[in-house]
Amino acid sequence: MSFKTLAALVAACASISLTGCASIVGDSDQSMTISSSPSDAAVVITDETAKQIFTGTTPTTVTLKKSDGSYFGGKTYHVEIDKPGYQMRQITLTTSPNGWFIGGNILFGGVIGWLVVDPFNGGMYTLSPDEISADLGDAVSMQGEGASLNLVMMEDVSTEMKDKLVKVGQI
Predict the structure, then answer these.
(1) In this structure, what DSSP letter does residue 67 have?
(2) What is the DSSP letter of 26?
(3) How far apart are CA 92 and CA 55, in angstroms?
């Protein structure tokens, strides 16, 4: 075996040993499909630091980072889906180690992949749930929830109540 061949083999082995299995196979981002019934609901996604990551309407697909870049720093996202007249839904997306990180490093990556490379790369994580389909329920009636409007003639308002009236606009 020549020196060049041996050097190439050593370099290849070194580069493989300095990577983690999840980092090789997995991506640092994950696509997430978000839909709602009814559609055209507002979507707001914030991360664990309360930073707004995305705003849009359903249906949509977003790409989210799986790691915050710190050691074993999986991301957490809060998804709020809202449409006026319907129930708002809040969903939390969390990360967990995937099979490539757990099993792949046993077979290929070893301790370096398990404890050094993959914990910094989002490839070791999977966001769940992997898609969101929110049922916002039936249209919400405002009646009976303290939000009502009563119209009366001014002559029917008592003098005591007239003193408490506040002008809100001009007709």
Answers:
(1) B
(2) S
(3) 16
Give me the residue spans of the domains in the chain: 27-135
Residue ranges of alpha helices (H) inside 106-164 are 110-112, 159-162
Give the 3-state secondary structure of residue 29: strand
In angstroms, how far is the first alpha carbon of the chain from the final one?
96
pLDDT digits (tens, 9 = 90+) for 8-63: 444 444 444 444 443 444 567 889 999 999 999 999 999 999 999 999 999 999 99
- Which residue reads 């050094």 in tokens? 116
Instruction: State pTM to two decimals.
Output: 0.60
Element (H, E) at 11: helix 3-17
Tell me the CATH class for 27-135. mainly beta
3-state secondary structure at position 115? helix
pLDDT digits (tens, 9 = 90+) for 60-86: 999 998 877 777 678 899 999 999 999
Provide the 8-state DSSP code for 140.
P
